[in-house]
Design brief:
Helix content is 35%, strand content 11%. The protein contains ten helices and nine strands.
Length: 404
């Protein structure tokens, strides 16, 4: 009789209670490590991109300044021959081509000119001129007077408004006071009551009126506007009608009735009387007082590599200058005590032998004066141009920027 064998029951290992938790922890750790690594790689890529652009800008910067010096040299040649600079129609509109300038391989260099003295100098604008300028944009008389009062009160603490407009900056959520000096930047317009609501949209961005104002007005301080590059808005501020503006614009640009003779320019204000049908307004001349030179260098091997140099120069004999006044406030009830000045120490007797030796060394090491023909009023590198909406009703400029 055979013995029966009972089947041996299979033994299954018990699952550890903490095994699932450990697996979850590992997966979460891996997920966080992957996210951290991804963020690190993105940041490293951004840092490398910024560094590469900075390095490219350094390389292109030298090219931009070389093109600028070449441009100024060409302008100086024309100035010596013609006795001054009046208009690109004299032949200096393409200075790099005139000088035979060849940029480095793979680079494209362009030069643009904007005659700042072809605008109205804001530091010298009168209330009547401002009102006429605003009225030429179809702004009612009363609103134009308020805009002029708002702007002039911002720049001059002693100005008496004619429209009764009184700003109240000190009761704003963020109180401030008017600087009581001419504008140094067009961005200040966003802080002026009345101007802010007119020149900017509800989103805070400049609108078409802001564009018109910056096209017709310059922040540079000069006493004469250049008749050879007057903007249409400038002529309107002087009281000339649209027909006179059109005739002058056609003569300067060489269009319309003057298409066969090409772009023209005036040697004296009296020559403009035949075009305008009236005497030229006071406060205008025929020479450039402040010229903006914009040099742009692009690397054709990379669409994102570029350098922009924006310079304003004053030719010899020009009285143009930048606004240098500090902000001043008129608060008669406020007394500001200045800190006591420290007592100066007693001077140390100088050694005459050392003084003589220093004077001799200074005379030997002193560099000769550099007779640079132009006065640099402003230099900006890679400045951002404000994005403004197109204004279909804006007048075309009489002398658009010239590209070389």
């Amino acid at each position: 009789m055979r013995a029966r064998h009972r089947p041996i029951p299979s033994v299954r290992p018990r699952a550890s209670r903490g095994g699932g938790s450990i697996l979850v922890v590992v997966l979460v750790t891996l997920m966080f490590a992957a996210v951290a690594l991804t963020l690190f790689m993105q940041k490293a890529a951004d840092d490398l991109l910024v560094e590469s652009r900075v390095a490219a800008a350094r390389r292109l910067r030298l090219e931009a300044y070389s093109a600028l010096e070449t441009t100024l040299a060409v302008l100086q040649d024309f100035q010596l021959v013609n006795g001054g600079l009046r208009s690109p129609a004299e032949g200096w509109g393409n200075p790099l081509e005139w000088a035979g300038y060849v940029p480095a391989e793979g680079r494209v260099v362009t030069v643009e000119f904007v005659d700042e003295s072809g605008k109205l100098s804001l530091p010298h604008m009168t209330p009547n001129t401002l009102v006429e300028l605003f009225k030429s944009w179809d702004i009612p008389q009363s609103d134009a007077e308020k805009l002029a009062d708002a702007l002039l009160q911002w720049m001059n603490p002693d100005y008496v408004p004619t429209s009764g407009f009184q700003p109240d900056y000190e009761n704003d959520p963020l109180p401030y006071v008017a600087p009581a000096r001419p504008l140094r930047s067009f961005s200040e317009l966003a802080a002026i009551d009345g101007i802010r609501e007119t020149f900017f949209g509800t989103d805070g961005r400049p609108n078409g009126l802001w564009k018109r104002f910056t096209d017709a007005v310059s922040l540079i301080d000069f006493t004469q506007s250049n008749l050879n590059s007057l903007r249409p808005g400038v002529l309107a501020a002087y009281g000339f009608d649209s027909n006179q503006q059109s005739q002058l614009g056609d003569f300067l640009a060489g269009t319309g009735n003057y298409q066969t003779q090409g772009p023209g320019y005036f040697h004296t204000p009296a020559e403009a009387s035949t075009i305008l049908g009236a005497e030229a307004p006071t406060g205008v001349g025929t020479s450039i007082g402040a010229l903006r030179v914009i040099v742009t260098v692009l690397d054709s091997s990379s669409a994102r590599s570029g350098f922009r140099l924006n310079v304003v120069v004053a030719p010899p004999g020009s009285n143009a200058k930048v606004v240098a006044q500090k902000a001043t406030t008129k608060r008669p009830n406020t007394v500001v005590e200045s800190p006591a000045a420290p007592t100066p120490a007693a001077p140390t007797p100088a050694n005459p032998n050392n003084a003589a030796a220093g004077a001799g060394a200074g005379a030997q090491n002193q560099a000769p004066p550099l007779n640079y023909p132009f006065t640099i009023l402003e230099i900006r590198e890679n400045d951002e141009m404000p994005q403004t909406p197109a204004d279909p009703t804006a007048n075309s400029t009489a002398n658009p920027p010239v590209k070389a």
